[in-house]
């Protein structure tokens, strides 16, 4: 049954085909161009996608500031006041003594390490290390030759600040004149904790 109301609207495929046909036809002079079918709403033009906003940059994780370990004072500046008074008066009971005179730096370091280790194992509290006063010149020296005057005194103060000696020493002080003065040092050893029984 034919539809009322005139012609049916063209389907999309038919419109495309008709458009191709009309594109190839030249209209006659004075001919009326067909009116576009206004029944269909024009499709909205595709909206331009807005530019994607750049995500804000992620915060850079800065490394946490680490508090540097507290530097311990040199061993030869440590000790309690009573200890200092005993040293000043020369009233220090010496458990053992080590003389480094005439040794090379290498020999002196090895001898000192063993001496402090054994003194600590024996439970000694105070030992005397004789380095000699001397005078350190500016000439170069060989650690395997006999140390020049004064170098062992300087090196001794460096050695006691390093492991394993530092772990066994509580303090170091220049000795009283009666025990050598500036040419020797009292080495106060840490008290060893008794081994725990199983």
From TrEMBL:
Region (Disordered): 1-83
Gene3D superfamilies found in the cross-reference section: 3.30.1370.110
Biased composition, class Basic residues, residue ranges: 1-10
Source taxon at top rank: Bacteria
Domain Smr: 98-190
PANTHER family referenced in this protein's UniProt entry, alphabetically: DNA ENDONUCLEASE SMRA-RELATED
Name under which the protein is recorded: Smr domain-containing protein
């Amino acid at each position: 049954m034919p539809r009322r109301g005139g012609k049916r609207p063209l389907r999309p495929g038919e419109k495309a085909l008709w458009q191709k046909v009309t594109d190839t036809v030249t209209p006659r002079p004075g001919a009326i161009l067909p009116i576009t079918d206004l029944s269909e709403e024009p499709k909205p033009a595709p909206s331009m996608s807005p530019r994607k906003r750049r995500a804000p940059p992620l915060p850079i994780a800065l490394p946490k500031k680490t508090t540097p370990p507290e530097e311990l004072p040199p061993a030869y500046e440590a000790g309690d006041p009573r200890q200092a008074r005993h040293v000043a008066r020369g009233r220090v009971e010496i458990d053992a003594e080590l003389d480094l005179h005439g040794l090379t730096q290498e020999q002196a370091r090895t001898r000192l390490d063993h001496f402090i280790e054994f003194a600590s194992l024996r439970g000694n509290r105070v030992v005397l290390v004789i380095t000699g006063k001397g005078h350190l010149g500016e000439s170069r020296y060989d650690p395997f030759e006999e140390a020049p005057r004064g170098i062992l005194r300087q090196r001794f103060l460096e050695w006691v600040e390093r492991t394993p000696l530092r772990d066994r020493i509580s303090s170091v002080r220049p000795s009283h004149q009666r025990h050598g003065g500036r040419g020797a040092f009292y080495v106060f050893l840490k008290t060893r904790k008794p081994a725990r029984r199983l």
